């Protein structure tokens, strides 16, 4: 669990900040990925692709048509400001591509610190369909969350040192996350139960480490289009890549 151990030490050594060092960068808009316009693929009767979420063996959450011909996948950290920027920029325009059934959007977590891991557990605490909306809420309120955590830094650092069975509950309490998620449909009892699952915490971190190493994900956000890594991390760069692949 190298990522988690290193992040824990970093958080103990200095105040939690909205640092950009761990966030990716790039300016390539998709290279030679090209394709003709792909016709819309209707969702099953009575359903909407925007309300369809499926999970993957890699612990990803796919929003939209799971068989979409264009698959956008993002590795993101819930404490990464650049990821928050992308979520804000893309939340509206990406919707039309997902709704068409031509594009699916998969989100996988890369874990950067104990607060990140705790929130990653909490966004999984509801239904599969609540994962993406809860992640967006975290990013939309990231500065507030980090400020709240910083204001209670002694309790947060003590929580990080707690036994694994209670560690994430205590981190969430110290950072004000119990109330934050309760206001968004995850009750206190539900949150506390999810956060008591230390095996789930270890699985999330292990998946993050294993996949990051395998796919050379060195920072967030990092995007893949139909399995190909993009040197792009903004919506202004990602949208042309989707269009070159056939999304309209």
Automatic annotation (TrEMBL):
Pfam families (alphabetical): Thioredoxin_4
Signal peptide: 1-21
UniProt-listed InterPro entries: Thioredoxin-like_fold, Thioredoxin-like_sf
Residue ranges constituting the Thioredoxin-like fold domain according to the UniProt record: 59-243
UniProt keywords, alphabetically: Isomerase, Signal
Keyword Isomerase: yes
The protein's name: Protein-disulfide isomerase
